[in-house]
Write a structure and sequence with these properties.
367 residues, eight-stranded mixed beta sheet, two-stranded parallel sheet, 13 helices, alpha/beta
Length: 367
């Protein structure tokens, strides 16, 4: 067992290697169209930490942070601009320089969920279907009747077999209605069964099965990331969703220290993924990242751990975009109101497609 754990941590330290056969070059498209798109979500991660770093009130609250000194050493600074770079270095050193960030409410730049429930299933459903469904009001494992953008793209000949989703939360097969579609979905602690023989994936599967004794609804994000990384290396999908969930889990456990630590780890995962696409033929200068969250959470001490329709701040989200055709203007400081349901059509437009579905919200006009 010890050898298995050592092996998986060794794998996590190995950077992506370019596939022996590069991805086929796509036909020339307008600069605003990407050949590939990666959608990444950080579950329940607040806009406050994205734009201001560690919260000055919460980081000093001993109830939520058992080791205040350790957390302060890593993530605290009196200056918010320095603080946010400590917490999310990729976001503020790379993404802010080459992409766009929306949702800093200090500048009246707002993104909200359109659904009133402000919990995960309704949030992800809104995000991927482009509409709100009042019947989707809980996190219960019910099959989503609404068409999502991933299955829509997978129905197109140019994307068939090139769409995949890897998620920590085990409810996504229901959100995407797995029984109705054929694109790859790997969620929770389900082993990844691949047609391509991979020793690395066999090790990951074995760790999931043998080394994780108490399997919760949310898989460790590192295992989700490793599984996605191996699939990308082997299959080079054009559309990939990576749904990470431990930030929300740490918040519900009232552990602000672990919430910040996990956000910092996720930032590193995104940085590694970006480095890979920028050094791999077919992905390089041809891939857009959309990074966002499914809902906000409470604003104050004692409320930040939760979210829902009766908790102020729960509908407040954020968005980051980087890729070809995205102007490098960084943090958007102009007043505007956007909604999460606009993301589905935005994903389609970035790929030069039109998501044809009922009651679809219009795409976001990126700057």
């Amino acid at each position: 067992m010890k050898n298995i754990l050592v092996s998986v941590f060794f794998l996590s330290a190995i950077p992506f290697s370019s596939p022996q056969q590069g991805i086929s070059k796509l036909a020339t498209k307008p600069a605003t169209v990407a050949g590939n798109i990666f959608i990444i979500t950080i579950d329940g991660f607040r806009w406050q930490e994205i734009f201001n770093g560690a919260d000055s009130i919460l980081i000093n609250d001993e109830i939520f942070t058992p080791d205040t000194g350790y957390i302060k050493m890593l993530y605290w600074d009196n200056n918010a601009a320095t603080r946010r770079k400590k917490l999310m270095p990729f976001f503020w050193n790379i993404l802010a320089a080459k992409g766009q960030l929306y949702g800093n409410r200090a500048f009246d730049n707002k993104i909200n969920t359109a659904n009133i429930y402000t919990i995960s299933y309704p949030g992800y459903s809104e995000m991927f279907t482009g509409t709100t469904d009042m019947n989707i009001s809980s996190n219960e494992k019910i099959k989503n009747p609404n068409t999502n953008i991933l299955e829509y793209l997978d129905s197109k000949s140019s994307f068939k077999g090139k769409v995949a989703a890897f998620t920590s939360w085990d409810v996504f097969p229901y959100i995407f209605n797995e029984d109705r579609n054929s694109f790859v979905i790997n969620s929770g602690y389900s082993p990844m069964i691949d047609t391509v023989n991979s020793i690395q994936q066999q090790i990951i599967n074995r760790v999931q099965e043998d080394a994780v004794y108490e399997k919760a609804a949310t898989r460790f994000d590192e295992l989700t990331f490793l599984t996605a990384k191996e699939y990308i290396r082997k299959h080079q999908p054009r559309v990939m969703f990576l749904g990470l969930g431990e930030t929300d889990e740490m918040a519900h456990q009232k552990r602000y220290d672990l919430y910040l630590d996990q956000a910092n780890k996720v930032d590193k995962m995104i940085a590694e993924l970006w480095h890979y696409v920028q050094t791999t033929d077919g992905y390089k200068n041809n891939t857009t990242f959309i990074i966002t969250t499914d809902h906000g959470r409470g604003k104050k001490s004692g409320r930040w751990t939760s979210h829902g329709e009766f908790i102020a701040g729960s509908s407040q989200t954020w968005l980051a975009v980087i890729g070809p055709g995205i102007k490098p203007i960084g943090e958007i400081k102009e007043g505007q109101q956007l909604y999460q349901q606009q993301l589905a059509q935005t994903i389609a437009h970035l790929l030069g497609e039109e998501f044809e579905a009922d009651n679809i919200a219009p795409a976001i006009s990126l700057r």
